[in-house]
């Protein structure tokens, strides 16, 4: 594939999207913010990829298998760009507009489609053909085709559009004025030219009273708000845990808190999930599954096992995330103020009866010298242990530790380390050698680190003496030497 002038994209293949080989057509990109979507994310990507050219996915702190499924799909050949915002509190408006601007500037698309992970492009005809016909000098509004849970759902079907085939007979509406709820499709250059902003939830744009809006009834977003009682339980529990640690409340927070009270009261959870799928709407339900005949890409689900984590597993992972965030608060108070935090790669472990970390003297000295937030390993037997008063984390949790770089000590080969972490979610561009890191912080940074090293080591020895006595401290130092 290659790009030509006027942002018309050529694909050297026949793709079933209504274009012949070598024929010009639009470049269409979607973007989606995800947070624990493992039950639906594979269906979402495999289906929507039939109608768009590239996906941008923003990880807002997934702790389930969502990202592993996404990385597996990237290995299959899906063109997906992943950005990490795990340290950012959930703020859809700010993050959506940040990445909308970034996509326009860096990827130069014709159309941008903001999609939630529970939204699927659909129409009575091929959605791609309808997208190709959109006026690029307008912003486009479409409606939701709202699907609900019923007793007729095939709970053994993992591909969500096949599982859930019943929806409201008309688009959902605003309770305030009865007008249909809209979702946006963005003409990229026009959006930039008009200096627009995208509203919370992707429902409208604002910022220029002269913006031209076109409403469409043929193109829709199929919306699967709730897909199982298990999903309702784990999402409610995990989100309410996170909500405790944030300073913001909104309508969604209240909804989750209300649902949590229902879970704790012991009501019928399937019926509660069914009601949640209706979201308070009172509307006739009809059998109207989305048309899968336009799908040329593979829509067979391959990663069932990754999507079927138990509620206990999901809650455990969320608990670990919150524990790591608490560790960050305490660790930050002890760090050097004038150096940004980094992560070092752990260079050793040992043990017969049990495995425990065994960093080299070289790494121990570096940990006290620089501003080290934690240590990275791919050995899951020692994850979340501490060494040199630093937390040991595996690749899936590295995103929850603030860090400018992942530094490889001289005891390890940097190329081998990079290959070791391919496809794990670690940002390989952040992995650098110790020599490169020292160059990054410059003479002043290294001098600052060196001046702080001696008092740090003396304080560490003092603390060890307090816990273990002078004799045992001497024995420990000798063993390390």
UniProtKB/TrEMBL annotation:
GO MF entries: transferase activity
Database matches in CDD domains: Glyco_tranf_GTA_type (cd00761)
Coiled-coil blocks: none
Pfam families in the cross-refs: Glyco_tranf_2_4
Superkingdom field: Bacteria
Keywords: Transferase
InterPro entries, A to Z: Nucleotide-diphossugar_trans
Nuclease listed as a keyword: no
Protein name: Glycosyltransferase family 2 protein
């Amino acid at each position: 594939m290659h790009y030509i002038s006027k942002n018309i994209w050529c694909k050297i293949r026949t793709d079933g999207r209504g274009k012949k080989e070598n024929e010009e057509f639009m470049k269409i990109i979607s973007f989606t913010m995800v947070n624990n979507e493992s039950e639906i994310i594979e269906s979402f990507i495999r289906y929507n990829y039939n109608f768009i050219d590239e996906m941008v996915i923003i990880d807002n702190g997934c702790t389930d298998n969502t990202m592993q499924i996404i990385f597996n799909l990237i290995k299959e050949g899906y063109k997906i760009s992943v950005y990490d915002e795990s340290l950012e509190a959930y703020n859809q408006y700010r993050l959506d507009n940040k990445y909308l601007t970034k996509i326009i500037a860096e990827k130069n698309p014709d159309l941008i489609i903001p999609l939630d992970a529970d939204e699927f492009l659909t129409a009575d005809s091929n959605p791609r053909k309808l997208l190709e016909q959109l006026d690029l000098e307008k912003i486009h509004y479409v409606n939701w085709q709202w699907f609900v849970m019923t007793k007729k759902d095939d709970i053994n079907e993992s591909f969500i559009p096949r599982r859930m085939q019943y929806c409201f007979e008309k688009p959902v509406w605003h309770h305030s004025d009865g007008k249909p709820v809209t979702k946006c499709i963005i003409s990229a250059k026009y959006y930039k030219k008009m200096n627009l902003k995208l509203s919370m939830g992707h429902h409208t744009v604002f910022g220029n009273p002269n913006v031209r809006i076109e409403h469409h009834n043929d193109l829709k977003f199929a919306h699967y708000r709730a897909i199982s009682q298990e999903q309702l339980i784990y999402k409610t529990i995990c989100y309410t845990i996170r909500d405790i640690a944030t300073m913001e409340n909104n309508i969604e927070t209240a909804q989750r808190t209300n649902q949590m009270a229902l879970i704790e009261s012991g009501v019928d959870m399937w019926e509660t999930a069914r009601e949640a799928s209706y979201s308070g709407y009172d509307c006739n339900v009809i059998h109207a599954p989305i048309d899968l005949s336009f799908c040329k890409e593979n829509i067979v689900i391959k990663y069932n096992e990754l999507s079927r984590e138990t509620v206990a597993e999901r809650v455990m992972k969320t608990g670990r995330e919150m524990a790591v965030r608490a560790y960050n608060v305490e660790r930050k108070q002890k760090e050097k103020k004038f150096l940004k935090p980094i992560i070092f790669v752990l260079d050793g472990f040992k043990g017969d009866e049990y495995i425990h970390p065994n960093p080299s003297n070289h790494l121990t000295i570096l940990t006290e010298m620089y501003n080290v937030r934690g240590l990275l390993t791919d050995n899951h037997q020692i994850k979340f242990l501490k060494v040199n008063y630093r937390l040991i984390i595996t690749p899936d949790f590295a995103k929850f530790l603030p860090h400018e770089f992942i530094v490889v000590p001289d005891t390890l080969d940097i190329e081998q380390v990079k290959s070791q972490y391919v496809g794990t979610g670690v940002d390989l561009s952040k992995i650098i050698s110790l020599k490169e890191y020292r160059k990054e912080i410059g003479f002043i940074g290294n001098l600052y680190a060196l001046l702080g090293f001696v008092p740090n080591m003396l304080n560490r020895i003092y603390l060890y003496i307090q816990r273990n006595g002078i004799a045992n401290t001497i024995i420990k130092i000798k063993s390390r030497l």
